[in-house]
Design a protein that fits this description.
Strand 12 and strand 13 form a beta hairpin. 48% of the residues lie in helices and 14% in strands. It has 16 helices and 15 strands. The strands form three sheets. Strands 6-8-9-10-11-12-13 form a seven-stranded mixed beta sheet. It has a six-stranded mixed beta sheet with strand order 7-5-4-3-2-14. The chain is globular, with a radius of gyration of 24 Å. It has two domains: 225 residues; 253 residues, Nitrilase/N-carbamoyl-D-aminoacid amidohydrolase (4-Layer Sandwich), CATH 3.60.110. The protein has 499 residues and is α/β, with parallel strands linked by helices.
C-alpha cells in the first residue's frame, strides 16, 4: 500500500502539469491571441511524456486533452443549458461527458506514438511527436462526424507562420508549431541545438511567403457587398408568431442597399421553409433583378421527397441553391434519434431533423461570379472549403453564432474562417445573425467587421480572385502521408536499435 501511494505521489506532478498545459492552449486562440501559450502548453506535455510507459502516456494524454477541451470548448454548455433548456446539473454532466470523450480521442494517437518510440534519446522520438499530433487533429476532423476545433495552427493566422497556410494549410502550421515546442524543450532540457535549425528555417521562410500571392484578383471592378446582421434572439427567431416581424425587419434593413452587387442575409435568416416564403422572396427576387443585385440568404428547404435541408439560396441577379453537407450533431440532426428524441429539450431543438446535401453540388452565382457557400460549421473543414472553392471567385459563409452566447466560441469561429481565406487565396464574406459579420481578405486580415450583439448593417468592397493555391490542389494528403511515414520510420528505427 505504501509503495502504491509513493508511486501515485510521484506521478501527480506530471498529471497536474499536463492539466495546466492543456488548459493553457486555448489562450493562444481568439479572443486572447497569446500564441506563445500553445508553444508552452505543448512543450510541457512533451516534457511530461519523457520516460513514461504506455499506460502513463495514455493517462497523461487524456488529462491534457480533457483540460484542452474543457478550457477551449466548454461553450457547448451554453447551447445545452441556455438554448437547449437543460437543467444546470444535466448541462454540466453532458458538457463533462463531451470534453472527457474528446480527451480520450486526443490521447489515442499518443498511445500509438509511445508504442512506436521507445526512448527519448532517438531522433525518431522527436520527429514522430509532431507527426502524431497532426494525425490526431485529422482524426478529430472526421471521427464520429468530427469536431475540427482548436487546431494549433489557428493561433498563427497573423504571425510569421501565416505564409504557410496557402501551402500546407492549418494542419501543416500545426506541425510547425509542435516541432517548435519539441525543439524548445530539447534546447532547455538536453541542450540540443540542432532541432531548432529546421524550425528557424521554417519561420524565416514564412516571413518570405507572407509577401507571396498564389491567386490573382480582378482589380478593375470591385464588388460591393452589404451584410445584414439582424441580431434576433433564438427565442424570437423560432417563435412562429414573429415571422412577419422578421420579414419586415430584414426587408427594412436591406431597403437602402439595393445599389450593392450583393446583399447577404445570415443562416436561416427566414425561419420558414423556402416554399412557404416564396411569395415574399419573389418580390425581393424581382427587385434584385431590377437593380442587378444578388440577394444571398440562408433558409430551410424541403424537397419533393420529404427531405429537409439547411440551405443557401441566391436570388435577384444571382442564382442557385446549396444544401449544407456537414451537419452539426444535435443542432441539425440527432444521432440515435429513435432513442434520444423526447428525452430532454436539448434533443428536440428547432430544425434538428436536417439531411445532408450531396457531396458534389453546382456552386451558386452572384452576377457573373460563382461563389463557394458554407453554412456555419462547414467553414471549419479545410478540405471541404478547398475542394468547393476551386472554380469560384470568392467564399461566402453564413452562421447563427447565437448558440455560443457570449463565450469565446464565435471569435474562434471567425478565426477559423480567416484561415480558410488564407488557404484558398480568396476574399471571404461572412454574414451572421448576431456577429461577428466580416469581410476577410485573401491574406486572412479582417478588412471590416461588425460588433457582436448589435442590429447593424456592414458594407464594403472586395475583389473576385481566381487561381489555385498549393493547398487547394493537394490539400493535406501529402502532409498526412509524410506523418505516417515518419511514424513508421520511428517504429522501424527504434526496433532496429533494440532500444
Amino acid at each position: 500500500m505504501k509503495q502504491r501511494l509513493h508511486t501515485a505521489a510521484r506521478h501527480w506532478p506530471g498529471v497536474l502539469s499536463c492539466a495546466i498545459g492543456g488548459a493553457l492552449i486555448p489562450f493562444s486562440f481568439a479572443p486572447f491571441n497569446l500564441w506563445p501559450c500553445a508553444l508552452a502548453g505543448v512543450a510541457v506535455f512533451y516534457f511530461c511524456l519523457q520516460q513514461r510507459n504506455l499506460k502513463q502516456t495514455f493517462l497523461l494524454g487524456w488529462v491534457f486533452g480533457t483540460a484542452l477541451f474543457a478550457s477551449g470548448a466548454s461553450w457547448v454548455y451554453v447551447s445545452i443549458h441556455d438554448h437547449g433548456h437543460a437543467p444546470v446539473a444535466l448541462a454540466v454532466l453532458l458538457t463533462t461527458i463531451f470534453v472527457i470523450g474528446l480527451g480520450l480521442v486526443f490521447a489515442l494517437p499518443f498511445y500509438i506514438w509511445r508504442r512506436c518510440c521507445r526512448h527519448r534519446q532517438h531522433t525518431a522520438w522527436m520527429i514522430a511527436f509532431p507527426a502524431v499530433w497532426v494525425l490526431g487533429e485529422w482524426l478529430r476532423s472526421w471521427l464520429l462526424t468530427g469536431f475540427p476545433w482548436l487546431y494549433l495552427g489557428y493561433a498563427h493566422v497573423d504571425t510569421v507562420l501565416a505564409g504557410w497556410f496557402p501551402i500546407v494549410g492549418v494542419w501543416g502550421v500545426s506541425f510547425i508549431v509542435v516541432l517548435s515546442a519539441v525543439a524548445l524543450t530539447e534546447l532547455l532540457t538536453a541542450r540540443r541545438i540542432w532541432p531548432s535549425v529546421p524550425v528557424l528555417a521554417l519561420c524565416i521562410a514564412g516571413i518570405g511567403l507572407n509577401s507571396f500571392y498564389w491567386t490573382t484578383g480582378h482589380r478593375d471592378k470591385p464588388l460591393t457587398v452589404t451584410i445584414v446582421q439582424p441580431n434576433f434572439s433564438l427565442a424570437e427567431k423560432w417563435n412562429p408568431d414573429n415571422r412577419d416581424m422578421i420579414r419586415a425587419t430584414l426587408n427594412q434593413m436591406s431597403r437602402d442597399y439595393w445599389h450593392s452587387d450583393i446583399i447577404l442575409w445570415p443562416e436561416a435568416a427566414l425561419p420558414e421553409f423556402f416554399h412557404n416564403a416564396r411569395p415574399f422572396l419573389g418580390k425581393l427576387d424581382h427587385k434584385g433583378q431590377q437593380h442587378n443585385t444578388s440577394l444571398i440568404t440562408g433558409i430551410p428547404w424541403r424537397t419533393e421527397q420529404g427531405l429537409y435541408h439547411n440551405s443557401i439560396v441566391a436570388l435577384g441577379d444571382g442564382e442557385g441553391v446549396y444544401h449544407k453537407v456537414r451537419l452539426v450533431p444535435f443542432g441539425e440532426y440527432v444521432p440515435l434519434e429513435k432513442l434520444l428524441r423526447g428525452l430532454i429539450a436539448f434533443f428536440d431543438l428547432p430544425m434538428s431533423s436536417f439531411s445532408p446535401g450531396p457531396d458534389r453540388q453546382t456552386m451558386p452565382k452572384a452576377g457573373n461570379h460563382r461563389f463557394a457557400p458554407y453554412i456555419c460549421y462547414e467553414i471549419v473543414y479545410p478540405h471541404l472549403v478547398a475542394r468547393n472553392a476551386t472554380e469560384t471567385d470568392f467564399l461566402v459563409t453564413i452562421s447563427n453564432d447565437s448558440w455560443f452566447g457570449t463565450s469565446s466560441g464565435p471569435l474562434q469561429h471567425l478565426q477559423m474562417a480567416q484561415a480558410r481565406a488564407m488557404e484558398t487565396g480568396r476574399y471571404l464574406i461572412r454574414g451572421t445573425n448576431n456577429g461577428v459579420s466580416a469581410i476577410i481578405k485573401p491574406d486572412g486580415t479582417i478588412q471590416s467587421a461588425s460588433a457582436q450583439f448589435e442590429r447593424t448593417v456592414l458594407t464594403g468592397k472586395f475583389y473576385p480572385f481566381r487561381g489555385t493555391t498549393p493547398f487547394m490542389r493537394l490539400q493535406s494528403w501529402p502532409l498526412f502521408g509524410l506523418c505516417l511515414l515518419l511514424l513508421l520510420w520511428a517504429w522501424h528505427d527504434t526496433r532496429q536499435t533494440g532500444k
